[in-house]
Design goal:
The protein is of the alpha+beta class and 142 residues long. Helix content is 33%, strand content 37%. It is built from 4 helices and 6 strands. It has a 3-stranded antiparallel beta sheet with strand order 1-2-3. Strands 4-5-6 form a 3-stranded mixed beta sheet. Helix 2 crosses helix 3. The longest helix has 23 residues.
Length: 142
């Protein structure tokens, strides 16, 4: 299996410094700073990238679960909200909220919920983040 990489460079101190993050394939490159991480300044941040990875992983995992059950999804759209908070030991990711909407012809809603939960607990990003509370709001659309 391939090994995926990304790189980051930070210049300066935490408060006034800034950096750039880039993926191995160069399909994403972006600036980040203390302001983009802990405030609403322009730029990306590690938590946003975790959210993107988790949303993508979960959507693929749910599609796989549904396909193995004999259903081909028209679409699976997922939003991941990663919460970072100040705690005793510094900052921590305390919660991730997954919200997914799927269009799957002929699928029973109870089976959909079962497969969505299996995807939540089984996708590689969820498993890597097991120490974080991960909630799921899964809706089957008509």
């Amino acid at each position: 299996m391939p090994v995926r990489t990304a790189e980051a460079e930070w210049k300066g101190d935490l408060a006034q410094g800034s950096g750039r993050i880039r993926t191995q394939t160069a399909s994403f490159e972006g600036a980040y700073s203390s302001g983009s991480r802990f405030e609403e300044a322009k730029g990306t941040n590690p938590e946003e990238l975790i959210a993107a990875a988790h949303a993508g992983c979960f959507s693929m995992a749910l599609s796989a679960q549904l396909s193995r059950a004999g259903y081909e999804p028209d679409s699976v759209r997922t939003t991941a909200r990663v919460h970072i908070e100040k705690v005793d030991a510094g900052f921590s990711i305390t919660r991730i909220e997954l919200s997914t909407r799927a269009r799957v012809p002929g699928l029973d809603p109870a089976l959909f919920q079962e497969k969505a939960e299996a995807a939540r607990s089984g996708c590689p990003v969820s498993r890597a983040l097991e120490s974080v509370d991960i909630t799921l709001d899964a809706q089957l659309e008509a």
